[in-house]
């Protein structure tokens, strides 16, 4: 029997450490790392805040050389070595995927540290895009010590696999 996707996945900050939290998806409760400045509403490029809000999960990107295709109801794309994400507020492709090398500042999606082996877009500042309001906000893999992110939500690899199996195109993410 197929498990129903949770309607909403919640992310809550820890009251003791604003850079740590929990992600709750139905009966699944997962520890997570948050931005170095915790969760905030007035997000700006480079401020380290994880944006507060309600979002539909975007596309999943994964490195096929680092594991099998994740089981999920989300749209899936294989990450390639030349994939990047523009983080230059002055560029016309700001907060959009780009091909590297790119003439403006862009984050590499193909990383050696394994954090982006599995990445889900959190559609912050995409429609409409506002220059300087923040870019490249993802659900991705956490560092072993759960150190803070630059504004993303990060979980352990084994927890990511469990979570992805529960996500579909109508699942909402609520960060509060």
Question: Which key phrases capture this entry?
Answer:
single chain, 176 residues, mainly beta, L,D-transpeptidase catalytic domain-like, 5-stranded mixed sheet
Task: Report on the architecture of this protein.
This protein has 176 residues and is mostly beta strands. It has one domain: L,D-transpeptidase catalytic domain-like, CATH 2.40.440. Helix content is 5%, strand content 32%. The radius of gyration is 15 Å and the shape is globular. The mean pLDDT is 96.
Strand content: 25-35%
Instruction: Kindly state the number of beta strands.
Output: 15
Structural class call reads: mainly beta
What fraction, in percent, of the residue positions are helical? Answer: under 10%
Report on the biggest sheet: 5 strands, mixed
Order of strands across the widest beta sheet? Answer: 3-2-1-15-6
What kind of assembly state do the chains in view correspond to?
Answer: single chain
In the CATH hierarchy, what is the class?
Mainly Beta
| Apparent shape | globular
| SSE series | EEEEEEEEEEEEEEHE
Number of helices: 1
CATH topology: L,D-transpeptidase catalytic domain-like
Unreliable stretches, pLDDT < 50, 5 or more residues?
none
CATH architecture: Beta Barrel
Radius of gyration: 15 Å
End-to-end separation in angstroms reads: 32 Å
SSE map:
Elements: E1 8-13, E2 20-25, E3 28-33, E4 39-40, E5 50-51, E6 53-56, E7 60-62, E8 76-78, E9 83-86, E10 97-99, E11 106-108, E12 118-121, E13 138-141, E14 153-155, H1 157-164, E15 172-175
Parallel strand pairs: 1-15, 4-5, 7-8, 13-14
Antiparallel strand pairs: 1-2, 2-3, 6-15, 7-12, 9-10, 9-11, 12-13
